[in-house]
Each structure stands twice: as C-alpha cells, then as structure tokens.
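Re: folding output
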Amino acid sequence: METLDVSVVNDARRMICNILYFEARNATWPIGSDISQMGPYKAAENKSEMIGALVESGMIEIVKEDAYRGGVRHRYSVTAAGRAWLAPPEAQLPAVFGHPVPLPEDEVEYRIYAYHHTFFQRHGRWPNGMERANAFGGSMSKRISPARRRQAYDDLVQDGTLVNINFWNWRGDYNCYVIVRYSPEYADQHGTTFYAPLDKA
C-alpha cells in the first residue's frame, strides 16, 4: 500500500472503516451493492485501483456466494491484517528530557501548545475540533482571527511539534492534533486515518 498515491491509500483506509462499521452494525459483512453505497467508494477517484490494492495487500477478502435465481454475489470482509492496519498504534511513554522543554515563543502557538498539553493531562486523549475551539475562549477569540489560528497550527506541524491525526467512527471523521513529545507513537503518522471510537482516541 505504501507504493500507492496518498489519496488512494486514504480512500482505502476510509473504505475499511466503513466495512468494519457495516459489520458491527449488521452482524454480517457487506455485499457488492452495500459497498457501492458507501461514501468512500463513491468518492474514490479510482474505485477499482482502491479495491484491488486492498485485496492484493491482504486487507480485505472478497468471497463469491450463490445469490437468488442462480446469480452470484460478492461479500467483502476485513482481514486481521486490515484491522491491524486501521488500529491506532500502541501508546508509548513520553520522551524523557534532561533539560527544560522549549515552548513556542509565538503567543498563538504557545496558547495552542498549552491547551493541548493540559487537555491531554486531564483527559488522557487529545482534543477534537469542537474541544480545540476552547483554546481561544474569552478575549482571545476577538483578538485572533481563524486564519491566524490555522497558520499557527500549520507552523506547529511544520516544525514537528504537532501531527494531525484522523479518526473514524460511526459519527464520521474527526481529527486531533497530537503533541509528538507526549505521544511519540504518532510521530510519523501525520494525516493518517484510524478506526477508533471517540472515547478511545
């Protein structure tokens, strides 16, 4: 999968999320007509390449079954390898520092960093989009534009302080910015989509 275009890989990851959710909701794996109604399948630019890559890499299996009136239908199931590919990485211990950790000097970046760190210490997970908005409550919301906030997040990603991780659950996609120092398991996972319920992310 690593040799494919990033957009194809992201489509494939979202596709597996949808198949897993279908099975959890219906206690059976989807058939071809179910697959064709899933959002990631409809949105994929190259549907056959995405499905083919998932089969070739062992992430999903497609089994032919007899259908009504002598027809054939295809049932799609996620393999153990597919589940492992979508699972969030095991938590690692935070990096140990022998000196004070340098904090961002920029006021907006510092506020973002401090809010995310405090949230993680209190809740054991990283804030989602709605929760991140609280970092700019009060007078800060009037002084700092949305564009300035987005730029601060981008700058923190560019310097390696944060990575942006996507999670998918039955509600859909949501993302979290992770401070790499405190969750080093995500250090090389920027932009990756995982299958995980909100309370487990």
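--- second protein (sequence, then structure) ---
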Amino acid sequence: MQITVTVSDVVVREAGFRGLSVVDFIDSLIDKGMLASQEAREHPVLNSAIERIRALRTAPVDLRK
C-alpha cells in the first residue's frame, strides 16, 4: 500500500536529529503507536480508563453553570 502524507518541518528535523530518514522515523512512530495500542488491550484497567477519558472528551458540556 502506498500512502502520501505531508510532514511538518519539525518532523523532518526530529528525524534528522535521530539520524533517520523521514520514512524510517514515521515508521518508528507508527510501530510505537501499534505497540502502545496492543499493550492497552492487554491491560483492561488501562483500557477502561482510556475509554472513560474518550467519553469525557466527547460528552456535551453544559456551559450554563
């Protein structure tokens, strides 16, 4: 699969600081995200906390207080 993305100068600089190509740096970020996602599924308490946070972020806010 091929995906085209636009990356910021900050990402390009970070890749350079780490001595990586931009593609390798983005791949490492994706890998880290996948690993974190897998770990969250393996820990139900953490997964539950994440779901509660997501629910709070999407819940409507009553500003008439």
